[in-house]
Amino acid sequence: MNRKKLILAAAAILLLAGSGAGIYYFMPYVLPAFIRPADATRKGYAKKLKEEKKHEPEVGADLEVFVVNLAGPAPARYLRTTLSLGVKSEREKEEVKELSGPIRDAVIMYLTERKVEELLDVKGKAKLRADLVKQVNAAIGKKMVLNVYFKEFLIQ
User: Fold this and answer.
1) What pLDDT digit, counting tens, does each position of 79-105 carry?
2) CB contact at 8 A, 28 and 37
3) What is the β-pairing status of strands 59-62 and 78-87?
């Protein structure tokens, strides 16, 4: 009889310890602040929101072809590219068309400062894409453009 109680007590302790460890590692945000690990956030929840945000539908606002001289020593090098701006709605697409002058100016001014070496690898193109989003949004005066897509990219 004594042995049965000992086994049941050990099983209950293991069950409680396992449950506590599971909560500590998988759901730390439900714990009080003094027990919670320092880096505990709602990682799963934040990740889910980020994934939902990634899949927002976008409308493409196409811009005309850009042909610019790239910075650097002679001989002159040229970049020919066609961009499409990812915006949230048809209304914003129309706004982009109305503001095409300031947008084109911002893109041309930014592209002419780039060197060929910066644009040859994938990392350089990714940085260019992120910087163009910032430049275009600055030219518009609000955060409207979500992404920039290259429809054509030719360096000569």
Assistant:
1) 899 999 999 888 988 988 888 899 999
2) yes
3) antiparallel
- pLDDT at position 45: 47
Cα diameter, the chain: 94
Q: Which domain holds residue 38?
A: 2-54
- Asked whether the bond before 75 is cis by omega within 30 degrees of 0, the reply is yes
35 contact partners, CB below 8 Å, separation of at least 6: 24
Residue 107 CB partners (closer than 8 Å, separation 6+): 63, 66, 83, 132, 135, 136
> 3-class DSSP state for residue 55?
coil
Contact in structure between 72 and 115 (CB atoms under 8 Å): yes
| Paired tokens of 152 | 């054509």
* Domain count of the fold of the chain: 2
pLDDT in tens, 3-46: 888 888 888 898 888 887 777 777 777 777 667 666 655 555 45
* 112 and 67 within one domain: yes
Residues 113 and 38 in one domain: no
